[in-house]
Amino acid sequence: MRTRLLALAATILVGLGLVVPASPASASTGGTVDGDTHPNVAMIAFYDADGRFRCSATLVSPRVLVTAAHCTSGTLGKTLVTFDSVVAEAPPSPLPVAADVTAGYTAAEITAAGYLAGTAYTHPNYSNFTDLDNWNDVGVVVLDEAVDIAPAPLAPLNAADAIKHPRKTLFTAVGYGTEVRQADVGSQKPTPMSYPIIRRYVEMPGQKITPQIIQTNGNENDPFGTGGTCFGDSGGSLWLDGAVVGVTSYGYTANCRYIDGYQRIDIPVVASWLAGFLS
């Protein structure tokens, strides 16, 4: 359940997918408006028992998108997918509301609104943020129909293990996460804002690599990086040398300006499961 995504001790904010009430939230901390730089990165929206949520995902075959397990586990009905780089610059949200929120989206509701429909699957060994050694925060969305978009390449098996100096390595993260900035009125403390809903990318130096996780320093004030991931970037792709090596899994702070964590997809326990959808 998305409302229980506080794990890895009480200090870590996991599940960078933000609940979407009548209208969703969006963009990243710092970084660059993506435009068509990563046309294979999508925004997804879905229902579970706690409401409607949105995450990011990446096309890795004509019908398969890879995302985070906490963006697929417990999904009711179909998942909405859009590759539009700009979903909404200001309210209201363009996303449809399911006729029966207890059953989630139907394919007909999604396609009638002009979006793509897919079915969510979760890694069978997803630990729901309880076991760092067996994290497996990865899922897929299989589209009902193939799209004519070039899929993102996947990093070779164990690619991240070859990195000897993570802090000297720049990673790129792409997604539709919440933009952190000062509000137009009221408190001027930088806060995750609801709009615009756009695709962005950020560059971040590595911080640590484990057998399951890649951590980065996601601070826009870092002299070697341009920003970090935030709410709504969950499931978005982490790129290394032009290929996807991980998906956004968690962050450490509510204002998205510290360490970010990414589920590795270049490890055997994940790669072998993904292969079953790509064959």
TrEMBL record:
A Pfam family the protein falls into: Trypsin
Species: Nocardioides daeguensis
Cross-referenced InterPro entries: Peptidase_S1 (IPR050430), Trypsin_dom (IPR001254), TRYPSIN_HIS (IPR018114)
Residues annotated as domain Peptidase S1: 28-279
Entry keyword annotation includes Signal: yes
Statement: the UniProt record of this protein carries the keyword Disulfide bond: yes
Keywords: Disulfide bond, Signal
Lineage, uppermost ranks: Bacteria, Bacillati, Actinomycetota, Actinomycetes, Propionibacteriales
Highest taxon, organism lineage: Bacteria
Record's protein name: Peptidase S1 domain-containing protein
